[in-house]
Structure formats: C-alpha cells, structure tokens
Amino acid sequence: MSGGTLRLVQRSGIGTRSKCKGAQEEQSVGAGCPKRRPKKKSLTVAYESQPNEGNGKDPTASDLKKPKWEPKDWREQLENIQEMRKGKDAPVDEMGAEKCFDRTAAPEVMRYQVLLSLMLSSQTKDQVTAAAMSKLREHGLTVDRILGTDDATLGHLIYPVGFWKSKVKYIKQTTEILKHQYHGDIPDSVEELVKLPGVGPKMAHLIMDIAWNRVSGIGVDTHVHRISNRLRWVKKETKTPEETRVALEDWLPRDLWSEINWLLVGFGQQICLPVNPRCEACLNRSVCPSARLKQGPNLSKKGQRKGPSSGAAAVE
Fold it and tell me: What pLDDT is recorded for position 205?
C-alpha cells in the first residue's frame, strides 16, 4: 500500500507544472523556483543636441552634425606657404610687433609696448612702425612717460605712421585708461581690449597672442584678408577682415591660428603682393584658384583673361 502511494506521488511529481511566475518549463517536486535573471539595463546616450527629441523618432546618422566645410587643396597650399616662408626674411620677421618691444623691461611695460606697436602698425608698413617704436623707446616708452609727453612731441616721435594725428589722440586716451583702470597694465581679454580707443579685433587677438601668450582668435589684417580670398579659404567672398576672421575660424584647426597671421603676412609682403602678385615664383601657382601666369601666344582667346600689360602674374 505504501509502495503504491509512493509510486503515485512520483508520477504526480513528474507531471506537476511549476507555479513560479513566468516559468514555462516543468519542474520536479521539491526542486524550488529558479531565480529570476535581472533584466539588462539599457543605456541612454545623451547628445548635445537632439533635433528629434519629443517627436517620437530615434536619432539617426542624418541627425548628427555634418563635417565642416573645408577649402579645396588647403593643406597643400599651406605646406607650400610654409616652405616659402621658412627663410623668415620678410619685413614682418624683422620689424613686426614681436620685434618692437623691449624684452628686458618689466612684464607690464613689455605688454604696453606690444599694444602701442600694434596701434601704430595699422595702415602702416612694418619699416615705418619699427622706426617709430625705436624713437618712442629712446624717449621712454612707459605709461607714465607717455602721459607726461605733450601731443606735439608724441606726434613728432611717431610721424610718419599712417593717420599719426589720430593715433596721438588714441595713444593718450588709451594710456590714461590703462593708468587708472588697469594699474598701468593692459587688459587680458579681447572684450576689454577692443574697448580701448584705436584697438580693433585684429589688434586684440594679436595682443592676446604676443603679450599674454594666449590664442583667442586669428589676427586678420589686409594681407590675411586678401590672401584668404585669393586662395578661396572662405566659403564665399568676404568684404572685411573681420568677416574673414569669422570665416577662417569656422574651419581652420585651432593649432594653426597663431601661425597663420605670421605666415600670410610675410607671404603677402614677398609673393602674393596686392598689385601684380608674383605668381610665377609661387609654389601654389598650380593649385591657387586665383593664379594666372603669363599667357602663351598659342592660347585661345577664350581661355585668356585680361592682365597687366607687363605680362606679370595677375590675380582676380
């Protein structure tokens, strides 16, 4: 009797379905419920901008930021310019703002001299700026010394820099501000520098680089502005140096921002001249969209463009 009961229990046990929640397989009697496996947690990737957020759509590759525009052949063009500039024998290399201040002076005096050299350099050749800075340093180029100098004497010292009369006024006003608002030093930000009389964005970024050793932006003067448009380093033609600065900073790698002003200024002084650029001597003559060498007599008129009567290289 007991043995039959045992067999009955065994048969019943084999055919018993587990009551554990969610279990689908049969379990033997007394085996216990299996442990539930923890659900895998899904990771949510957060993006800086999610254009589809809230519309029920998952972000796709098309939603990701597209690669920035880059000029055609710009790396080859840059390498060629670096090669042409490796001699460092342009006027900017010998008489630029980095060469005009007294490196033995106190730090705040050096920074003040960098500021003034760049104020004087506007619309002025490096040779003229360097001569004016030399006379100012002989006179005594400190905040207190300039404040104690009358306008006539200051004008005589900086003449014949471009717009020298206006620059006398700007220098005196700026120096007064530095004395009373910055304890005789210069501001350490672009935002404050451009508030000074006679200081624009180009000067401010160069001052930050030279005086404070901080790269805040690209210094764009007439050379950089002209050459950037000739090389098509701007997506569309720019009318002002400030427009060019914004356009360049949008794509040019930041580690080139400090070097690019020095490279293009010297290149513009020696090869890519404002009038009659020396395209025949330029390594970029085959990859520059604005270059045109002297046309041969057998070329069709359709492929020719008007140029200087001298036959020198021309640029659009």
Answer: 97
Residues 6+ apart with CB under 8 A from 105: 113
Name the burial class of residue 266, with classes exposed (0-12), middle (13-18) and buried (19+) by CB atoms within 10 angstroms of its CB. buried
- In degrees rounded to 5, what are phi and psi of residue 315? -130, 140
Of the candidates 19, 99, 202, 235, the residue annotated as catalytic is: 202
Contacts of 34 (CB under 8 A, 6+ apart): 20, 23, 27
> By 3-state DSSP, what share of the chain in percent is helix, strand and coil, each rounded to 5?
45, 0, 50
What is the amino acid identity at position 290? S
> 231 burial class (0-12, 13-18, 19+ CB within 10 angstroms)?
buried
| 59: CB partners within 8 A, 6+ apart | 47, 50, 51, 52
Helix (H, G, I), strand (E, B) or coil at 291: strand
| 203: Cβ contacts below 8 Å, ≥ 6 apart | 115, 118, 119, 122, 193, 219
- pLDDT per position as a tens digit, 236-269: 999 999 999 999 999 999 999 999 999 999 999 9
Residue 220 near residue 202 (C-beta atoms within 8 A): yes
Q: Reply yes or no on whether 40 is catalytic.
A: no
* Contact in structure between 127 and 95 (CB atoms under 8 Å): yes
pLDDT in tens, 14-39: 344 444 444 444 444 444 555 555 55
Q: What is the C-alpha end-to-end distance of the chain, expressed in Å?
A: 114
